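testing teh design pipeline on a random one, pls ignore if ur not involved
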């Protein structure tokens, strides 16, 4: 990182700290203390846009982040009064498709059918990622840990991608002071809008990777493996039990650990799994596998057994087998 990056990070961190304190005070003054202030994560989109402007990222990236700011502001309404699930999915889909269209506009010319198909795929991916990230915002520091792992991986592994480097710095500078407050129970939450903002950044990462890479290795997505598999596993349980899939649930691994283990042990699986998969991926690359397939095989070979081992050995047997 350059000195300019450090100054930007310090400015974002200071603004986040002061903003979170002011946001919490305003929320309590207007809405009372009965409901924990939520939705502060919407300002993550502002930090990302600020980074694009300050470091003069390509015009299409800046416009994409500007669209994200507007869409996140709409999504923030869901943190005040719940929007319908269909409207949330529509906003998420439209944002993913718009971001994809803008990023493709800055690259090589593609046939119209390919652009439209890619935008539709990006919209669908954004809906899926928004739900995965949102399901991981159910306990103090859990989503903050996820964001920090992704952003930290980008800083360490994706130095060739200016867009992702600036975005990672913005994320870390935003999430660090937020995490200090979020570590205290019922103080402040990122909310659905914060989950949406970060999920949209993950969608942007996927678009950049599959549209040429821009120095972005697949290893930066490794921290997503456990949340994605956990969400898939819980989705299967809910399908079998005929639950309403549009409602929040409390079946995820970290939620069960939070209920039945002391302290912040529920944060450990995310961190340990990421470290193990990173190590396995690096080992597979030394054997000659490409980065993509090394990550794929490492995720399947490590995350799946690790996940079920956590449920088996970290949870009481009667709790692990319960779906309620």
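output:
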């Amino acid at each position: 990182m350059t000195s300019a990056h450090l100054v930007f990070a310090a400015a974002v961190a200071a603004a986040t700290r002061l903003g979170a304190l002011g946001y919490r005070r305003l929320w309590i003054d207007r809405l009372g203390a009965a409901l924990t202030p939520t939705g502060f994560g919407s300002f993550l989109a502002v930090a990302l846009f600020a980074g694009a402007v300050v470091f003069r990222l390509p015009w299409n990236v800046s416009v994409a982040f500007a669209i994200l700011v507007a869409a996140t502001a709409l999504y923030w309404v869901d943190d005040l009064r719940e929007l319908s699930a269909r409207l949330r999915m529509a906003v998420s889909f439209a944002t993913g498709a718009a971001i994809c269209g803008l990023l493709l506009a800055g690259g090589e010319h593609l046939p119209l059918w390919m652009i439209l198909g890619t935008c539709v795929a990006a919209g669908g991916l954004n809906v899926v990622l928004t739900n995965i990230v949102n399901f991981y915002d159910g306990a103090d520091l859990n989503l903050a840990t996820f964001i920090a792992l992704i952003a930290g991986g980008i800083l360490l592994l994706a130095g060739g991608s200016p867009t992702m480097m600036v975005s990672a710095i913005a994320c870390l500078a935003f999430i660090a002071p937020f995490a200090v407050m979020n570590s205290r129970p019922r103080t402040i939450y990122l909310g659905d809008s914060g989950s949406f903002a970060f999920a949209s950044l993950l969608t942007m990462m996927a678009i950049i990777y599959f549209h040429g890479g821009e120095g972005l290795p697949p290893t930066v997505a490794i921290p997503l493996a456990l949340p994605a598999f956990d969400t898939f596993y819980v989705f299967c349980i809910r399908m079998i039990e005929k639950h309403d899939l549009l409602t929040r649930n409390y079946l995820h691994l970290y939620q069960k650990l939070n209920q039945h283990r002391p302290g912040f042990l529920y944060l450990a699986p995310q961190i340990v799994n990421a470290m193990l998969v990173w190590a396995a991926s690096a080992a597979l690359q030394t054997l000659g596998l490409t980065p993509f397939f090394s990550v794929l095989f490492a995720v399947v070979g490590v995350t799946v057994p690790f996940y079920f081992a956590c449920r088996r050995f970290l949870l009481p047997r009667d709790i692990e087998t319960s779906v309620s």
